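Preliminary data (for renewal application), magnesium ion complex.
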Amino acid sequence: MNYESFLIKYSEIGLKGKNRYKFEDALVSRIRETLKEFEGVFNVYKEQERIYIDSSKDFSDIYDRVIEKLKRVFGIFTICPIKKVEFTSDYKELSKFVLDFVKNVYGTDPTFTFKVKTRRVNKSFEMHSDDVSAELGHDILETFNKTKVDVHNPEVRIFVEIRNHINIYSEKIDGPGGLPVGTSGKAMLLLSGGIDSPVAGYMIAKRGVVINAIYFHAPPYTSDRAKQKVVDLAKIVSKWAGHIKLHIVNFTDIQLAIYEKCPHDELTIIMRRYMMKIAEMIAEKEKCIALITGESIGQVASQTVESLRSTNEVCKLPVFRPLIGFDKDEIVDVAKRIGTFETSILPYEDCCTIFVAKHPVTKPNLNHIYKSEERLKEVIDDLIAKSINTQEEIIC
Ligand code: ATP
Ligand code: MG
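Predicted structure:
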């Protein structure tokens, strides 16, 4: 069967009351953006609490790619390839459309068990929905005599929606759920080359948040390949999250200053505090109203509850840590599913691993940290300003 249209259903965004149109509009524009590469093929629009993607031409050659792309658009609950026909008030004509649909999709001699479900929104079609379903069931049985009705556990469900036009479909493909990106503000993701932070960015984007990202690199201690890996990760996350503006900040001089002047068991914590500070400064410039990290309690020394408290403390913006209660294997599962895992495990050095102490503190004492940071006071403001002024920006 060559479908000409998709019916897109959304769930949660249906619940947003007066703001619903904003959510629908955001979803329509996300779908348009996603299908941009097929310029001129599709028309995306909303009508009666539904979103439609119509095509002016046969698109069977790109069908699979279109589905793959739609499966990444947050806010979509289900994707239904449909046959869309003009409204008729005549049952006989409707029945013919449905029988043609069955033949086109399942061939002339199908053997499935089935159930018909009708929804009548347009009441100028006078028969009641249940009667329409029963009659259509009857006509299908008569036309395709190897089929059987099974109302409880059918192999095929045939949906008929009578609106200003008529939708006929039998396939529902799961979308990713969530909210359309662009409906929940913007946040700055601290994106390293690891497994966790890309997953954290994906999870927050899924709730409708536009993502900016920041990566701290430390040339020549970290290589261009390590930086490229982060760019690649941002590109993979952007397949879900829409375009991501990636800020690449040179952290070398700050790291060297910390290394030179502060106790080595506190290096990671102090470094993480400056990362959060700089991320917040750039976030504010970019109108991001939250930070995102890939931290999870107890995963490493810098992620004990005490350590999290001391890195959290430097920020005024809320810090979202969507993985906070996840085990590593749970994070890995998501990373594999969203396609970041293979890139994340490429073995390029990370700026945190180069300057780590053998025995980092796991319960940092804030008063000690303040004292250590005092030792940086002559240089740190200039170093921070320099790192911000020399940042590189890449749209991924
Ligand atoms: P990840 O897998 O995300 O790298 P991790 O387990 O390696 O996490 P850490 O290195 O302690 O954990 O980093 C904790 C969080 O700090 C990361 O999830 C990320 O959000 C942020 N982060 C760490 N290093 C960097 C970096 N070089 N640039 C930007 N953010 C970073
Ligand atoms: Mg890391």
